[in-house]
Amino acid sequence: MAQDQASQTGAPSGSATAPIGASPTEVRLAAVTEAARFHSTELDPAELRFPPDQPVAAALLVEWIRGGGLWARGVRLRWKNLLKVDSSAPVVLLLNDGGAALLTQVDPARNLVWLRDPLATADQPSVPVDELRLAQVWSGETLLIRGLRGATEELAPFNIGWLSRVVLMEKHTLRDVCIASVALSVLTILPPLIVMQVVNRVISHESYATLTMVSMLIGVAIIYECFLGYARRQMMLIVGARIDAKLNLHVFRRLLGLPLDFFERHQAGSITYNISQVYKIRDFMTGKLLTTFLDLITLMVLLPVLFYISSTLTWMVVAAAGLLSVVIVIFIGPLRKIYGKIVQAEMEKSSVLIETVHGMRTVKSLALEPQQKEMWDRRTAEVASLRQQFGNLGNWPQTLATPIDAFMSRGVLLIGAYIALASPGSIQVGSLIAFMMLSGRVAQPLVGLARLLEDIEEVRASVGQAASVLNQKPESANPGAGLRPRFEGAISFEDVQFAYPGSKTKALNGVTFSIPAGTMLGLVGRSGSGKSTITRLLQGINREYEGYIKIDNTDLREINLAHMRRSFGVVLQENFLFRGTVRENILAGRPGLTLTDAVRAARLAGAEEFIERMPQGYETWIEEGSPNLSGGQRQRLAIARALIHDPRLLILDEATSALDPESEALVNANLQRIAKGRTMVIVSHRLSSLTDCDQILVIDKGAIMDIGPHRELVERCSVYRALWLQQNRHLESQNQRPAGMPALAHGDD
Ligand SMILES: Nc1ncnc2c1ncn2[C@@H]1O[C@H](COP(=O)(O)OP(=O)(O)OP(=O)(O)O)[C@@H](O)[C@H]1O
Ligand SMILES: [Mg+2]
């Protein structure tokens, strides 16, 4: 039966069975999207970059899928591999024509697989296909997609356990390092033992033959030591680099996933400092921890040999090393405390430096040099005095360690000599020399171990500091989740209450309004009334509000954050332009856009005229802080950047406030054009630039006073009228009624 069906339906082909007009690429994207949806992940085709006029390559698709938080791999399969697929999840077959089909089921018994056209409607069933027919359209390219098992690893809290897992992933290399270390320990112990033989036997028996043999042995041991040492260092390098790469990727990803308000609440300096603790922990784990561990291995090999030579002397050495460790441990705590203060003081010192360099314009223009210099001097003095304290205290353990050291090296020798004299034959001269050569290696591992115990405390503190940043709740638990609707641009707020974290007063208190798609909405109110807060909630920067915010009747919380922000355009008062050309700044790395798009956006933003006057036009280089642009030019570039992807919702928060009247007039003149076909939310202090808005929302102390067009507001809303009169008094004094100012309101003032 199935066989019959197969012959009736013929060979499947993504494009052949697809609705007319769908390109193979569209089929391919639909197949991947559907397969991803099976794992409850919505992929956004806007995130995929691919060259036009070519089938999307498997590697690009894999990257795209992984970006959505799934596991994906492009593989080449044969028919018999296909028959072994035993998962209910669809497998994507990339067809030769650039399209794709979904493998939904296999039937090894009848040598058939069932394929589905990704663009087919739900009522169209899968089609059975046999080997021959499939071979006509498919040459083996397959995409495997799975939910990410490691996803929990990504979200797992950052702590010692997590770090240990990262380190242990390198266990094979680490094992080799350990083997090399044991071998090295044996090799380093060997020469002293040989020396012992030389002195004991060769010299007393005058045997040249033995001497030659012994010399050769030592030579071979040295060569081995070189190689093993080289290999061990090399392996340590590799392990270190791998762990480093993993940490770096992880840390940066976590950082990017944090909500914006976290960065607003914490100083950049302290965030970077806390994060840099990660590297301290890494250094500890791959450095001290490992070295001490390896040293201990050496000790394990060494101690039996020493006991064999002379147990009395060994006990003395061990006791002295123990004493040394105690001295160091006693001082290490207070030293650390001072060192912590030094670090703190250095940080404050460098923040004076950074602040001064960044604010040099203000420092110069306000003649603040003496104050800054005094601050710097104070900080420098503080650091110097702390360093002095540190040095003073640090001198003690070194002084105390000197006699212990001397005892271990020379005292033990003297005691050994005494023992040799007191009971002849109990210890030979050669053995004594060998003992001296070896006993020097006992102290280091023991002292290292003692230090390690202290270090662990410090590392635990570092983990805490790093975790205070990295374990913050990310903006969205699963970046791939959430709806990705096509926005129209209708906005509604329903009784939205919001207070900033740590603030008792509500920034928004029962805000309710709604506007249809395509509205040009102005936001007006005194400074601090909550205008920017409304725009922030709209962008999903702050998510802890009460009430409902809906876009096109979809709850904001249900929408995929990245998708939402990509669909919106935002221009602020201060906009950051990246180092790069004008064109790159306007395109902002958006996939699939070209210079033509950049030119269109620039024209709409009124930026075209000055860009074309620039020496290299769109290829003009913009430096950090964009000093070669005026404020108005920078702002128009920012608007162009926001318009590049034709957003359905454009938010301008004081975008024109810092502009000179001419630039402002230029941008405002374009607003009507820009507003066409999209919803705009414009925050402005200058009411005159909002008179054209369809609706103006008047806010005071977080509550809505009124909403309506300018003409109505000026009549009925006292707050608005007061603001309007304030700004247009000059017109009044000239006995000119400002535009749109009804006679009724005129007499109020
Ligand atoms: N990041 C923040 N953390 C804490 N409180 C904030 C934060 N941003 C704003 N606020 C407070 O919330 C209230 C509303 O601020 P908002 O920025 O929305 O005012 P605004 O109307 O945009 O003012 P302006 O016209 O000066 O830009 C203010 O009282 C302000 O102190
Ligand atoms: Mg504001």
- Portion of residues in helices? 55-70%
The kinds of small molecule bound in this structure are: adenosine-5'-triphosphate, magnesium ion
Please, what is the average pLDDT? Answer: 83
What's the Cα radius of gyration? 37 Å
User: How many independent structural domains?
Assistant: 4
- Counting helices, strands and paired strands, the structural category is alpha+beta
Give the overall silhouette: extended
**Gap between N and C termini, in Å?**
90 Å
Assembly annotation: single chain
- CATH architecture tag of the largest domain: 3-Layer(aba) Sandwich
CATH superfamily of the largest domain: P-loop containing nucleotide triphosphate hydrolases
- Helix count equals 27
DSSP, total strands: 18
Features:
Rossmann fold, binds adenosine-5'-triphosphate, ABC transporter transmembrane region fold, binds magnesium ion, alpha+beta, 4 domains, 58% helix, disordered C terminus, 749 residues, 18 strands, Cathepsin B, Chain A, six-stranded antiparallel β-sheet
Describe it.
It is a single chain. The chain has 749 residues and is an alpha+beta fold. The chain has 4 domains: 2-150, Cysteine proteinases (Cathepsin B, Chain A, Alpha-Beta Complex), CATH 3.90.70; 158-305, ABC transporter type 1, transmembrane domain (ABC transporter transmembrane region fold), CATH 1.20.1560; 491-708, P-loop containing nucleotide triphosphate hydrolases (Rossmann fold, 3-Layer(aba) Sandwich), CATH 3.40.50.300; 710-749, no CATH class. The chain is built from 27 helices and 18 strands. The structure holds adenosine-5'-triphosphate and magnesium ion. Magnesium ion binds at residues 531-532, 653.
